[in-house]
Design goal:
The complex is a heterodimer of chains A (about 325) and B (about 290). By secondary structure, chain A is mainly alpha-helical. Chain A has 14 helices and no strands. Helix content of chain A is about 75%, strand content about 0%. In chain A, helix 12 crosses helix 13 (about 285-290). Chain B is an alpha/beta fold. Helix content of chain B is about 35%, strand content about 25%. Chain B contains nine helices and 14 strands. In chain B, strands 1, 2, 3, 4, 6, 7, 8, 9, 11 and 12 form a ten-stranded mixed beta sheet that branches. Classes of the chains: A mainly alpha (about 325), B alpha/beta (about 290).
Chain lengths: ~325, ~290
Amino acid sequence: MNKHEQDLQEVVDQAIAEQKVPHVKFKKIDPESVDIARLTSPSKETRQEHWGKGLTSLAIAVIGILIVAIIGFVGVRGLATFVDDKVNIFHFLLTSNWNPSAGKDHVGAAAMIVTSFAVTLLAALVATPFAIAIALFMTEYKSGKQAQFLQSVMELLVGIPSVVYGFLGLTVIVTVIRTIFGGTGFGILAATLILFVMVLPTITSLTVDAFKAVPQDLRKSSAALGATRWQTIYHVVLRAARPRILTAIIFGMARAFGEALAVQMVIGNAVLMPYNLVSPSATLTSQLTSQMGNTVMGTLPNNALWSLALLLLIMSLAFNFLVRLIGKRGS
Amino acid sequence: MHKLHLGKLMALILLLPIFLVGCSKDRNKITIVGSSALQPLVEQAGNDYHLTNPDSNIIVQGGGSGTGLSQVQAGAVQIGTSDVFADTQKGIKAAKLHDFQVAVVGIVPIVNKGIGIDNLSSKQLMEIFTGKITNWRQVGGKNLQIIVINRSRGSGTRTTFEDLILKGKDAVNSQEQDSNGTVKKIVSSTPGTISYISFPYANDPNIQKISIDHTRPTNQNIPTNKWRLWSYEHLYTKGKPDKETAAFIDYILSKKVQCDLVPKIGYLSINEMKVTRDSHNRITKIGSAHE
């Protein structure tokens, strides 16, 4: 028994000695049986507490290390193009001559950057009206069975693997575009149409949440003023939900920007600046997937691909930042 | 009590990857990574080999020739497979690698059926792929724009094609596809397209194979180098292979695989070749004094 526990024992003994009221005795519990050692050592519950806290912290630490490692690795590899191989960063961003195996003057990613943004913006542009319409139908006009049915259809669209979308695009969409516009059918238009279907569920479900978050009071007040349902939707619901709808669109765009496989199958993979919607081109992701197996680690062609990956990473961070910014402004 | 169980479960899940990795260390394991063209052959050979050698554990992965070469150079795998010579690849120290040539595969230019030609001179072929000739009329076909479908930059098939046909000239910037199957699909359905695929994929009535300088693209024309568009399939090991790896390579070079499996997949046995070609495309007749 150490000093501290002795002191405690003394206090307990003294309290018992000074006690005036005769003590009620339970079966085994009485003042004499107070076990200081047991009371001062951690209880089972405390140990559980430590366990729980320790495990969650460990899990967070593992994930934290993982994220830092990923960003660090992509960063180091991606910057090697500019540091080791002495490629000019403006040359990389602004020119469109892409043939890294030919040397450092042939590492221009502009064509891929433009194409990536083009397919992303176009897909979001096409998908948003549809997403808003579906979301309005599900929240404002019909709820219950029909809304649930639509919900499950959307979930089904999410569940279809991207390679299936790509295969469908290659077989159906590319053929249709070729018949209508001539050429090979590969290009931004085909990629846009595929991405439209792929980002539609993302934007829709987030827009549904946006409309659901609009307080019922607003709708009721609007109705009380004599507004029709459409007037309420147009002037009240859409306006109140605007920041959240924007967030939904950006989430959709992030998905479109990062999609690799399906796009790679229908874009044509020609690193050329697109001059119209049906000219073959390449996105950052499609170039990465089609090239990574053919380059040797540590060489310029390989480093250049890592730079594309770094660019993608930075873009996804930018999308996240944008979402937060809009969220802050909305609230 | 329930909470504690959950905690233990979580700890178990966190530690699981370590155990899983720990268990997979295996002495007899041979990992083979690289060329997707060679993958079916090595995979099938690996399965057959396993039947006679139950202890063996052969894992075959694709990933591309570049991946195969860099992985074997790093010592991460026992065998790296490649469609191209290691010394043609920047960043690969070919002197440290052992080269085993196990098969030969032909490459054939293909065009869409509606073009109306079945032969091109090698000069015409070069001018089409460098963008000098842009209409099929210029080579005796229909008045139709030429659409070049190239293969992925750095892929084995493209490297071979460019070395032998373009001879150092840069290919016109065009669409690229990385698999034989996709190329075939596009060429069969798009008017005016030209591309090239490896022999095993070319037997398809929906595409037109092209003879070069009136030599027909057949397996019979390859051993004498009459059909010049072919490449070796290489297995590379880092330094001398260890016992298990050497045994498997011997198995692939054995009569059983070379006479049976190799032709079945559409390749040509290395034993049939009457010439050799080095990494600088110098041709030497086998049997003549080439040393």
